[in-house]
Amino acid sequence: MIFKDNPICNCPDFETRQIKCKHIFAVETVITKQIDEKGNTTLTKTTKMTYSQDWIAYDKSQTKQKELLMKLLNGLCKMIPQPNYAFGRPRLPVSDMVFTSALKVFSTFSLRRFTTDMHIAKENGHIQKVPHYSSVALYMGNPELTPIIERLIEISSLPFKSIETNFAIDSSGFSISRYGRWFNFRYRKDEGFREWLKVHVMIGVKTNIVTSVEITDCISADSPLLPNLVNKTAESFEVKEVYADKGYSSKENLKTINQVGGMPYIPFRSNTTGKADGSMFWSKMFHYFMYKHDEFLQHYHQRSNVETAFHMIKSKFGSAIRSRNPIAQKNEILLKILCHNICVVIQEMHELGIETNFSSE
Prior knowledge:
- By secondary structure, the protein is α/β, with parallel strands linked by helices.
- Among the domains are: 1-50, no CATH class; 162-313, Nucleotidyltransferase, domain 5, CATH 3.30.420.
- Helices cover 44% and strands 16% of the residues.
- The chain is built from 14 helices and seven strands.
- The chain has helices at 12-17, 22-30, 55-63, 65-77, 94-107, 115-123, 133-140, 145-157, 226-234, 251-259, 280-291, 293-300, 304-317, 326-351; strands at 31-35, 41-45, 166-184, 189-204, 210-217, 241-243, 263-265.
């Protein structure tokens, strides 16, 4: 390729059509030329940012992931208190049922095919007894399991308490095995769609660890969920910066982030006037967004890490929910997030040298 005032290329497309091909457009995108009033030419080259990968640490974390996940998950489950039964048939230990439920979600196997993994866990001393596969399915529909998993998610993020200070918030959908119907008036026929649940998370942008989570139906708005996510995270982490998209832009959300000592980087909507209406912090952030827009975007672009976190969860554990019981569907999503957090811990154990076993001590 020869790049000058009339660029040419030796590819077949240019030789046939004699117009700009994709190679010329690519070069023009990377190289820009500016000519000032005196005729001086300034050539600007844009270099794509690349990030190196510690392949030795990555290979170790991936090849030993399942073994280490069982050990870390066992340490988490040992923290779960076992209720005492005064009479009747003793139930299976709660710690064993939580362990097997999380391991089942991690394996992405069906309950019957997952039985072998439960026997392996029993041989390694992670559970006391191998439950029947139907018992695992029934226990995932237990509402008492929900607060236990939520607490384990919070505990699994604590190893990064001294690392994570900047956080991002967003939501994403997980499809369920239920279909809805609606009438299309334009084409005069019934149409179906697959229903889904909306998952709201707050993650640390350095490691993509999930620090707090909320699960709602698909029609719930995003903005009202931000205060709860921020306050939960602030209980264990120092919050310096929070990133979110325009859907979270509200005075209440900015106030909540400011109260926990954080700086909100949330873009304003196009119809925002910037009037204070008693909120000086709202007015301050609006002027910062308008007059220091480039500086604002340098911080805001870290919001894309929450998209990466959702991609990590869905690509590894699936974006569809197999459970049919509404409570089990919520618990299955929470278990996906718990497994994601443990996998992040395993990765950083090899890259950053973090040491943890989540022991009850």
